[in-house]
Amino acid sequence: MVDQFPFADSCRMTVRAIAVCLILGACLSVTLTAAEVTAQLDRQSVPAGSGAMMTLRISGESAGKPAIAAVPNLIVEPRGQSQQTRWINGTTTSTVIYHYAVGSNTPGDYQIPAIDVVIDGKKFSSQPLMLKVLAAAAAQPPAGMTATPPGAQSDEDTEQDTGPNRFGFLTVEPATTGREYVYVGEIAPVRIRAWLPADSRAQLRSGIQPEGKAFTLHHVSGQPQQNQETKDGKRYLVVTWFGGMSATKAGKFPASLSLNATVAVRDNAAPKPQRRTGGPFDDPFFDRVFDDMNVPMIQKDVTLKSDDRQIEVRPLPTTDRPNGFSGAVGDFKFDAWDLPAEWHSGEPQQITARVSGSGNFALMNAPGISPADAWKTYAGKSEFTPGDVASFSGSKSFQFSAVPRKGGSQMVGLTFSFFDPNTGSYKTLISPLKPIQVAGENLADDPPAAAPTPVKEPSPKQRGDLVAQHLLFSPRDVLVPLVSRSDFLWLLEIAGGLCLLGPILAWLRRRRSDPRRLARARLERVTHAALQIANRCAANRDVSGYFAAARLAIQQQLGAQWNQPPHAITLAEIQAQIGGDSPVIAFFREADRQAYGCESTGEILPEWKTRLEEALASLKTPTHPHAL
């Protein structure tokens, strides 16, 4: 039979080819996530002669066909496949899903071995699964999730979820197990998960923030991981971050986190759109594309929150605390150190050292020199190299200068003290002693600093104050015309001023209600109040109160600039936003060092006040990248 419409067939084939090219081009233009292979059974046991549904999910680019090893008496039948694509913040996850019916006619316990898949030239394997086949007459235990035949929707897709977690939720889990408590200053690694409905579309509108003031979040991973998981019989798209949490005071506090997001979920209650049949796109492949593009969705701006899980924070013990302890909490060791062999008394040289391990590196100071009374050290510089995505482990290198105070031959080493939270005790590391030779004579000890002499206020007589004088005026009569008198000119000026008073009052009223002026005035008030509290604490020799009030004054300024809650601004966020050798970073480091258990003499050092003034001045400098 001769085709009577060759032109129509040619157009239909051309349109299909163009559509396929457009879809393939769009798929190739996005960034795909890491490859992953997961397998899951909808139930753990079935009667003989019946089967369970096995779902194999393959995420990745250029994935090959799965290879399923044969198991005696176990039947594995393919039941179709489908493909899913998820978009989260511009990152696309493409997943191919294979469905299999798995069962046997012979009762027994069967292990489905790991399924191998080659993705982009590398082999990936799923986890093995166990299936129990019962006798045909035995009752079947309830399934964890009903089977879904190919091409049909599951119960979770057809039922409308109206619960509080319809648009997702957060969970916070310890990344390590073994202890149900943490210590002050300890950074506990945590795993933060956002559970989003499997068929949803999400846009994250903020970073993860603590809900309360008790805990501080550190080093949250910038690139979260994504995978599909089943929880309580429902499928979720799980976005996972890694980070650390620490506390500055002891007690029991809720560790609650929040995340702002825009989530769109399927509206299963709305009628599905009808697609016109016939034409060049009358094909099952385009049916799936049409359904994914035209499914009704419900979009909402939500705040995903975690449960208020109580965490016990224990104080650092005060007994047996080493003199050189600076607040470092974790498990550390000396990695390397270098000490020159020849010195001259009174002349400085440079010492290098590297400490590695896991814990709170932010509060770690440079090691000390033993014997301490024979040396004088000066602050240098340090550099931290992270060992994982959450910066919980790594190494910190130090470079500082030292001056020998005594001449002759000496055995010198480096010492470093820290608190080990796993054993609940302080530890002091001592490097191997090295013989050195110091030329020159012993230096005299530094004299103690003399107390400042109070300045006596001079009396009024000593100051030579002036005595007030009263001038006497006598009235007199003058024969001057009224228009020429000064009083008349004053009356004219007052009348002109009254004419201008109306517009001025209107301008003042508008300026008085200006929201930007009100915000600036409020910021000045709260900052001034915080600085007054800091001055009172300095007068009372309250070091912790001084740093808390001074930190709040800086946080108020940064919170107004960055549009964030002041108490949620930490040293890690300031380093990410400002960077460099900012006075704000230097002051926050000193404040954290004092807050995390560093012993204090009760004196407010002048250099602390200088750092505070420099930090506040830098926030108001026009050249500052975040100036007010």
Q: How would you characterize this protein structure?
A:
- It is a single chain.
- The chain is an alpha+beta fold.
- It has four domains: 31-147, Immunoglobulin-like (Sandwich), CATH 2.60.40; 169-313, no CATH class; 320-439, Immunoglobulin-like, CATH 2.60.40; 515-619.
- The protein has ten helices and 31 strands.
- The strands form eight sheets. Strands 1, 2, 4, 5 and 6 form a five-stranded mixed sheet that branches. Strands 11, 13, 16, 17 and 18 form a five-stranded antiparallel sheet that branches.
- α6 (515-539) runs antiparallel to α7 (543-562), α7 (543-562) packs across α9 (583-595) and α7 (543-562) packs parallel to α10 (606-619).
- The protein is flat.
- The N and C termini lie far apart (82 Å).
SSE inventory with pairings:
Layout: H1 6-28, E1 31-32, E2 36-41, E3 45-47, E4 51-59, E5 75-88, E6 91-103, E7 108-112, E8 116-119, E9 122-125, E10 129-134, H2 155-158, E11 169-174, E12 181-183, E13 188-197, E14 201-204, E15 209-210, E16 215-218, E17 225-231, E18 234-247, E19 251-255, E20 257-266, H3 284-294, E21 297-305, E22 309-314, E23 330-338, E24 342-344, E25 349-359, E26 368-370, E27 375-386, E28 393-404, E29 408-420, E30 425-430, E31 434-439, H4 460-463, H5 486-512, H6 515-539, H7 543-562, H8 571-577, H9 583-595, H10 606-619
Parallel strand pairs: 1-6, 3-10, 12-22, 24-31
Antiparallel strand pairs: 2-4, 4-6, 5-6, 7-10, 8-9, 11-13, 13-18, 14-20, 15-20, 16-18, 17-18, 19-22, 20-21, 23-25, 25-28, 26-29, 27-28, 29-30, 29-31
